[in-house]
Amino acid sequence: MISNTYPQTFLELPLSRDAGAAPLQRQLHARLQAAILGGKLPAGTCLPGSRALATTLGIARNTVTAVYEQLAVEGYVLAQRQGTQVAPQWHGDTAAPAPPCVLAQRMQQFAPLRTALSYRPAALRPGEPALSQFPLAAWRRALDLAYRDGSAAAALAYGEPAGEPALRAAISRYLAVARGVSCRAEQIIITEGAQEALTLCVRLLTNPGDTAWVEDPGYRGAKAAMQAGDLSMLPMRVDGHGLSATPEDWREYPPRLVYITPAHQYPLGAVLPVPRRLQLIEAARAHGAWLIEDDYDSEFRHAGEPVAAMQGLAGDGPVLYVGTFSKTMFPALRLGFLVLPPALLAAAQAPLVAMLRGGHRHEQLAMAHFIDSGQYARHLGRMRRLYRARQQALREALARQFDVPHTVEGGHCGMHLTVRLPPAFPDHVIAAAAQAYGMAVSPLSGFSLAPREEDNGLVIGYGNTAPELYGSLLGRLAMLARQASKV
Amino acid sequence: MISNTYPQTFLELPLSRDAGAAPLQRQLHARLQAAILGGKLPAGTCLPGSRALATTLGIARNTVTAVYEQLAVEGYVLAQRQGTQVAPQWHGDTAAPAPPCVLAQRMQQFAPLRTALSYRPAALRPGEPALSQFPLAAWRRALDLAYRDGSAAAALAYGEPAGEPALRAAISRYLAVARGVSCRAEQIIITEGAQEALTLCVRLLTNPGDTAWVEDPGYRGAKAAMQAGDLSMLPMRVDGHGLSATPEDWREYPPRLVYITPAHQYPLGAVLPVPRRLQLIEAARAHGAWLIEDDYDSEFRHAGEPVAAMQGLAGDGPVLYVGTFSKTMFPALRLGFLVLPPALLAAAQAPLVAMLRGGHRHEQLAMAHFIDSGQYARHLGRMRRLYRARQQALREALARQFDVPHTVEGGHCGMHLTVRLPPAFPDHVIAAAAQAYGMAVSPLSGFSLAPREEDNGLVIGYGNTAPELYGSLLGRLAMLARQASKV
C-alpha cells in the first residue's frame, strides 16, 4: 500500500532486518517519535491503520499496535474512535503551529510553512531567470501592438478556453523546430504556467487514489498538483541517467501517471537516455499509463547537442508535453502550455470548456508576435550565452570559495547547479540560515518524498544573480555550512 | 444517497406513486432509457449500484435489478464485473460521440459538447459586459504606469502567491465601502477570475465525496468546480427569494459547502432576504459548513438600495466571499479574488503557497492604480447607467417584439434578464437555433441539475449588445421559439 499523503511516505520505508539492527518495534517507535517531534507529522494527522501499516512493512500487526499504544501512553498520539491521531505537541520548537482540522485532509499534508505568505527577492533562487537582462522595451512594444490592433477591444471578451489560436500556432511551429515536438496547434492548451498544465493532467486523467510516479528527488510543483488531486504518489529513485523503473515496478505498482523531466532532471540534472525513454513509452502503452514530460528549461543547453523531446518519439503515444515561458520570458507572465496527444483531444473538449476560461488575450497575442517576429529566438540565444557564462563562473566560485566537501551534479543545461553535501552538513539548516543573508538556495532533501542520506545538498540558481557576487555569496554559504555542521 | 455525478441527479428524483401512474418498474425503465438515448448517460457511465438506487428511490431492490436486466437484454447497458455500465450507442442521433473511457470518471460527467473548443463573438451573451464602452485608453495608461515604475523589472519575477499587496489593499478598501465586506488585505487572495476562487474553496475545504449544496437553477461554473473536486452536489430549489433550505435539509443532507449568489441569484435574479441570510449563517455555524458567497455583478444595481454582502453579517463566520473584475472591467483580464475568513487564514497558508504562483503583477498593479485613482468607481457609475438603460430597452423590446407567452424574472441588478417559457417552447432547441443568427442566449434548463417543467426559458444578456438591435433580435427569437414549438 502506498500512502496518498506524501510527507508520510517515509513511514513505509522498509525497516532494517540486519543482524545488528534494533528490534522492529523499537525502530518503528523511533521513526514515529522523530517524525512527530520534527514536525513531519503535525498534530491532527491520522496515522495509517495498524493492519495497513503492518502489511506495508511486512511485520506483525501486533508490533504496530504495540507501538501505537506506547506512543499514546507517552502522549504523542491520541487513540480516537476513527483511528490514531497525532496529539498537539507543546514543546514548541517547530516553527509553525499545527493547522486546525478545518481544511480538507489532503491540504493538511502540505508541510507547515516557516515563512509567511510573502515573496522577497533573493540571490541564487533556483528557477528565476536574469530579469535585469529581459528586453522589457521590446516586450512592451509587442504588448502595444496587441492593444493597438483593430480587434483590441474584441480581445477584451472571453476567448477560446484553450487560448489564442495565434499563440497556439506559433508555439506549435516553435516546438517542431526547437524541440522536435510533433503537434498541431489544436493540441496545444495555453495554461497559467506549467503549474496549471500539471493540474489539468491530474484532473483530466486521474481519479482520487490513483497511483502516480514521481522522480525522487523531484519537482515539488508536480507533487503539489498530485497532492491536490488526491493521488497516491510513489517516489521513484533517480540515478545518473534519470528515472529508473524496472518491469517489476510496472507490475507491482502500475501508475496512472508518470511525471518526468527527461531533458534535464530537476533538480539533479540528468538526461534521460533514449533507450529509457523508449522503454517508458512502451511500458506506458502496455499499462494504460500517461507520461507527463515537463520540459521546463531545455532551451538553455550548455554542452553537446540538443536532446529532442520525448513527445516526438511517441507519435500518437501516451505523452503529455508541458512547457512554460516562465524561465525563457519571465515568471510573472504566467504563460505555459500543455500539448495533448491526439487520442485525448476529442474526449477532453467538454471538460476543458467547463474548466477553462481563456483570457489574458493581449498578452497571448503579444507572445505570438514575439515568437513569430524572431525576437523570442534572439532573446533565447542571448540568455543561453549569459547562463553558460554564469554557470562557468559559479563552478569556479564553488571550486575556489565553497571550501566544504561537496560534489557538483548536472550542469549541461538550465539555470541551476546542485551541490551534494555530506550528511554532517544538514541542508535545511544551511538554507534557512542563508535566507538571513538574502540567499534563496533550496535544500536538496526538500525535493524528496523519502529523503536518503545522499539527498543532502543545495540547489543553487545562477539565473538571477550576477557572477561578480558568486565569490562572496559562496564564501558565506561555506561559513554557514560549517556552522550548521557544529550544531 | 446523492450521486457525485451531477447529470445523474435526475435518477434520484422520486418516482410517481399516484393512483394513475405507471408501475414503478416501468417508470424507472423509461427514465433510464430516455437518459441513455438522449445522451444524458453517455457510454461508459456506471449506473448506481442497485442497492443504493433502491434505497434512494425508496423502492425494492428487486425492481432496480429487474430494470437493469431488462436494459442489458435490450443492449442499453452492459452487466460488468464492476457494475452496470452504459453500452456504446450506435443510433447516432446525438451530436457528439461518447468519449472513450481514458478520462477520469468525474470528467466524463461533463455534458458532451455540441460545438468545438472555440469562441465566437455573439449578441445577447449573458455575463459579457459592454466591451465597446470600456475605457481602453485609460486602462493602457494604468498599465504603462506599472511598466514605467522603477520596480517594473522586479515585478517580472514570481510574486506573492496571494497576489500583489497593493491590489489586495485596494480591493479591501473598495469592498468595505461598496459592499459592506469586512476584511483586511491579508484575507484577500487574488485569483484567475471567480473560477479559480471557486476551485480554491473546493480544494481547501472538501474531501472527495463531500456534499455541496448548489442553487437549482444555478451557476454552471460553480458546479464545474465542484465536479472537478469529486463532490456530491445536491440541487437546492430556488424560489422568488433565492435558496430555501429547511432544518430537515440541514439534518438529512448536511453540506460541507453551500454555494449562493445572495445579491442576485444566477440566473433567476432573486435577492436573498436578510432573515434567510442569518439562518444560513447560523445553520452553517452549527453544522460546520462553509458558505461561498459569489457576488459576481452586484455593482450594477438598477432598483432600490444596494444590498450589502452577506460576508459583513457573519463577522469571523463561515462565509468565503468571491468577487470578480470580469464583469466590471473585462473578462479577458482574468482577475478575481477570494476573501478568506480569519479563521482559515493561518491554516490555508501552506496549501496556498504550494498551489499558487502569483504573477500577472503589472496587470495587478495597474488594477490597484485604477481603483485607487477613482477611475474604477467612475467607470462603474457609467456602466451602471448604461446597463440600466439597456435593461429598460430590453424589457420594452420583450413586451413589443417577443410575442410568445413568457414571464420576465429578476432585473433589479446586473446585465441579464431571464425569460420563462411554457414547456411547449423547448429552450435548448431555441438557443441552438439562435446560434446560427449570432445570438448566444442560454437555455434556462441548462442551469439545472434536475430540471423541472418550469425551468424552461432563456437567459438573455444585454451587457454586450446595443439597444438598437433588441427589436430585430427578439423578433427573430420569437420566430425561432414558434418554430421550436412545432417540431
Please, could you describe this protein's structure?
The structure is a homodimer of 487-residue chains. The first copy, chain A, has 14 helices and 14 strands. Chain A has 487 residues and is α/β, with parallel strands linked by helices. In chain A, the strands form 3 sheets. An 8-stranded mixed beta sheet of chain A has the order 3-10-9-8-7-4-5-6, sandwiched between helices. In chain A, strand 11 and strand 12 form a beta hairpin. In chain A, helix 2 crosses helix 3 (61-73) and helix 13 (427-435) packs across helix 14 (470-486). The longest helix of chain A has 27 residues, at 375-401. The first copy, chain A, is globular, with a radius of gyration of 24 Å. The model of chain A is unreliable at 1-7 and 90-100 (pLDDT under 50). At the A-B interface, helix 4, helix 6, helix 7 and helix 10 of A face helix 4, helix 6, helix 7 and helix 10 of B.
Strand content of chain A: 5-15%
Largest interface: A-B, 77 and 78 residues
Uncertain parts of chain A: 1-7, 90-100
Alpha-beta content class of chain A: alpha/beta
Q: How is this structure best summarized?
A:
The structure is a homodimer of 487-residue chains. Chain A is α/β, with parallel strands linked by helices.
Topology:
2 copies of one chain form a homodimer.
Chain A: H1 24-37, H2 50-57, H3 61-73, E1 77-80, E2 83-86, H4 136-148, H5 165-179, E3 188-191, H6 193-205, E4 211-216, H7 220-228, E5 232-239, E6 242-243, H8 247-252, E7 257-260, H9 274-287, E8 290-294, E9 319-324, E10 336-339, H10 342-355, H11 361-372, H12 375-401, E11 407-409, E12 416-420, H13 427-435, E13 442-443, E14 457-461, H14 470-486
Parallel strand pairs in A: 4-5, 4-7, 7-8, 8-9
Antiparallel strand pairs in A: 1-2, 3-10, 5-6, 9-10, 11-12, 12-14, 13-14
Helix pairs in contact in A: 1-3, 2-3, 4-11, 5-11, 6-7, 12-14, 13-14
